[in-house]
Design a protein that fits this description.
The complex is a heterodimer of chains A (423) and B (229).
Chain A lengths: L1 H10 L1 H41 L2 E5 H5 L13 H11 L4 E15 L5 E12 L8 H4 L2 H4 E4 L7 E5 H6 L7 E7 L5 E12 L4 H4 L2 E5 H7 L8 E5 L6 H15 L8 E5 L6 H37 L1 H9 L4 H36 L2 E2 L14 E2 L7 H4 L1 H16 L10 H5 L2
Parallel strand pairs in A: 3-8, 5-7
Antiparallel strand pairs in A: 1-9, 1-10, 2-3, 2-6, 2-9, 4-7, 5-8, 6-7, 11-12
Helix pairs in contact in A: 1-13, 2-11, 2-13, 2-15, 11-12, 11-15, 13-15
Chain B lengths: L1 E14 L2 E14 L3 E5 L6 H8 L7 E6 L2 E2 L5 H11 E4 L11 H11 L4 H14 L15 H13 L5 E5 L7 H18 L2 E5 L3 H4 L4 E6 L2 E7 L3
Parallel strand pairs in B: 3-8, 3-9, 6-7, 7-8
Antiparallel strand pairs in B: 1-2, 1-4, 4-5, 9-10
Helix pairs in contact in B: 3-4, 3-5, 4-5, 5-6
The chains are: A alpha+beta (423), B alpha/beta (229).
Bound molecules: adenosine-5'-triphosphate and magnesium ion.
Adenosine-5'-triphosphate binds next to β1, β2 and α1 of chain B.
């Protein structure tokens, strides 16, 4: 019987084509949008992890409370001690110090007088240790426009946009005006070793990147760090992060000492947990909306199909097929058509996601003035659930739509069949 | 042994506030193997009678006993089973399933009976041989002439070897040559397989084939003639 129905579906295009198209589109959109959204969220989280939050991060409690203001007066003392504790307790992770600071960049002329000046975001990372991954992690190697990475103390990278605006070239001197962790003014001159295009407008407008040891010296922060970030060897793993965090905090965080270190995991920071949950919710909401919308459309196509096949059902009733059996075949047909549509939609949706996973769409032009930490290139991501997620709205909507439409078979009277079939 | 017994059969339809009597006190018995025509003017109740015998509708009063089953007492499911197993239908307008081939159309009643593929194939080929259409098994109904379509419909009615075949004006849409061919085919099946045929007709050409002729008028039997062919 299934084979019989299958033949009917394949031969009668008007029975199958429209529903298949509707389902394919719905399934395509479901998969495409959820892959796309997951991609964006994953990229955003990844970017945040690399630049800001780490997979886990250690700060003093006081620093954490005012993190946005870069309160280096509250920074973590005995940085090297904490670094070796963290390395010893979690040797499979990479632990790095970073210092965030703000300041003014001053471009001197040949006489050492100020030629131009602009505010800058400062980041000090481990650039000089031979086995440091920081330059790659922050995408510095790839973002290099001119020159090269610092190879010794006293060198700095600045944003290319800033360099061009103020006519700074590789090899020029640049002076950083800032404040030490104790609040006094400080300045330090660096040689520009290269310029960077971050692809993030906040940083492109003005940023300076120096080695952590230079910052510790310039800002009077010897053996002090804003934060220590921990990175897993692979992707972020929330369970493991939670475990490491709890162990650390139980051992070292003192409630009565706001300068004692506290560990935060990625999802504790910057509303990332809410963002992740939102991503999941949006997928569910989307699937739900598609189910409702497609069910209504398919209910109607089912009703039309029922009208078109009125005499077919009539003959079948006359030939002694039971109503419940006809109803069952309507459902089977819906499942077959729903599966075909879901498969087609899944193939297209996955292809689109694969394509956008390999070739993202570059939105950096649109986001010149956005201050948020957003990836410039948007990519989709193909996760295992994309292979089946489309079948939920596809099959469900088709089956529901036809279950509703097909119900009219039970209202059909056999008494008038002869008359209906005579026309 | 009577295969169909109609006793004081009355069929009334509700019309507006009142009722319309379509069949009025019908008493008829049909023996196995009869080849019977129902004639009468339009509106005389021919289709109504076939409907009831075919378990598509039930009597208002009196009884209709078909294959020892009282039509009035059958559930929908039992009525479907009776049609599925024992009654073949032939319609004026053929009513073949357009997307399926000749073979598949004839096969359909056997699918409902859950017959296996070999049984189905043998039975379908046999039925198509009876009506002389074995060379058209792959054709779709749209490629066939009216006469050929009606022969497929006969094969579909006959393939399950029913005891009774009911046909409502089977030749009304056919020209004279095809009508004769159809009648000859049905007559042959009636003789060779002993199937009881009952059909309504307006068609004079049909009369010569019948061995029993029942005339209806205003829902009443006005004559019942048995001819000895
Ligand atoms: N469902 C119904 N409701 C009301 N009246 C009906 C219904 N079915 C049939 N009738 C009436 O019953 C009478 C008999 O109808 P029937 O169809 O049996 O006639 P018929 O002999 O088959 O006519 P024809 O030769 O035109 O097909 C007609 O007057 C018809 O109007
Ligand atoms: Mg009639």
């Amino acid at each position: 019987m299934i084979q019989f129905l299958f033949k009917g579906i394949l031969r009668d295009k008007s029975r199958s084509l429209l529903p298949v198209i509707i389902i394919s589109i719905g399934v395509f959109l479901t998969i495409f949008m959820s892959g796309w959204m997951k991609g964006i969220f994953t990229d955003m989280i990844d970017l945040n992890a690399k630049f800001t939050t780490g997979h886990v991060k250690v700060m003093t409690q006081a620093y954490a409370e005012n993190e946005k203001q870069l309160p280096n007066d509250l920074a973590l003392m005995d940085a090297n001690k904490w670094l070796s504790i963290l390395q010893k307790e979690n040797p499979e992770m990479e632990w790095v110090q970073r210092i965030h600071f703000g300041g003014l960049l001053d471009v001197p002329d040949s006489n050492g007088e100020t030629r131009a000046q602009g505010p800058a975001i400062g980041k000090a990372i481990d650039l000089l240790s031979p086995n440091s991954h920081e330059a790659n992690r922050m995408n510095i190697t790839k973002s290099l426009v001119k020159g090269s990475l610092p190879s010794k103390n006293g060198q700095a990278l600045i944003s290319n946009e800033f360099a061009e605006r103020f006519g700074v070239n590789v090899g020029d001197d640049i002076t950083l005006f800032g404040s030490t962790m104790h609040g006094s003014m400080t300045f330090q001159t660096f040689k520009v070793s290269g310029t960077l295009n971050f692809g993030m407008s906040a940083l492109d407008r003005g940023a300076i990147i120096i080695d952590i040891s230079d910052a510790q010296q310039a800002l009077d922060m010897l053996d002090v760090t804003s934060e220590i970030l921990g990175y897993f060897n692979g992707d972020y793993n929330d369970n493991q992060a939670e475990l490491i965090k709890t162990n650390f905090n139980n051992k070292y965080t003192k409630a009565d000492d706001e300068y004692s270190p506290q560990m935060y995991k990625l999802t504790d920071q910057g509303g990332l947990k809410e963002m992740l949950m939102q991503a999941e919710n949006m997928t569910s909401i989307m699937v739900f909306i598609f189910i409702v919308a497609m069910s209504i459309v398919l209910w109607n196509t089912g009703l039309l199909g029922g009208l078109r096949r009125y005499s077919e059902y009539g003959v079948r009733l006359a030939l002694g097929e039971e109503k419940s059996h006809i109803y069952k075949t309507i459902i089977y047909e819906a499942i077959i058509i729903g599966s075909i549509g879901s498969i087609v939609g899944t193939i297209f949706g996955l292809s689109a996601c694969f394509y956008l996973q390999e070739n993202g769409i570059d939105f950096s032009d649109l986001m010149k003035n956005v201050d948020m930490m957003m990836p410039p290139v948007y990519r989709a991501i193909v996760t295992p659930d994309l292979f089946y997620i489309g079948f939920i709205p596809g099959l469900f909507a088709m089956t529901l739509g036809n279950a509703l439409a097909g119900y009219s078979i039970y209202k059909r009277k056999t008494a008038t069949l002869f008359k209906e079939l005579e026309v | 042994m009577n295969i169909i017994q109609l006793n004081n059969l009355v069929k009334k339809y509700p019309v507006g506030n009142g009722e319309f009597t379509a069949l009025n006190d019908i008493n008829l018995n049909f023996k196995e193997g009869e080849f019977t025509g129902l004639v009468g003017p339009s509106g005389s109740g021919k289709t109504t009678l076939l409907n009831i015998i075919g378990s598509l509708d039930s009597p208002s009063y009196g009884s209709a006993i078909v294959m020892n089953k009282s039509i009035a007492e059958l559930s929908h499911k039992e009525a479907a089973m009776l049609r599925n197993q024992h009654i073949g239908f032939i319609f004026q307008t053929y009513n073949l399933l357009p997307v399926y081939t000749v073979f598949e159309n004839v096969e359909f009643p056997l699918l409902l009976q859950n017959k296996n593929a070999t049984q189905r194939k043998n039975a379908v080929m046999e039925a198509l041989e009876w009506v002389g259409l074995t060379d058209k098994i792959k054709s779709k109904p749209s490629m066939l002439s009216g006469g050929e379509c009606q022969r497929v419909a006969i094969a579909r009615a006959m393939v399950k070897k029913p005891q009774i075949v009911l046909a409502d004006e089977p030749t009304a849409n056919l020209d004279s040559k095809n009508s004769h061919h159809i009648l000859q085919t049905m007559q042959k099946l009636n003789k060779e397989l002993g199937v009881t045929f009952l059909f309504s007709t307006h068609d004079e050409k049909v009369m010569q084939y019948l061995n029993r002729l029942i005339s209806l008028e205003d829902g009443k039997v006005i004559s019942d003639t048995i001819k000895n062919a």
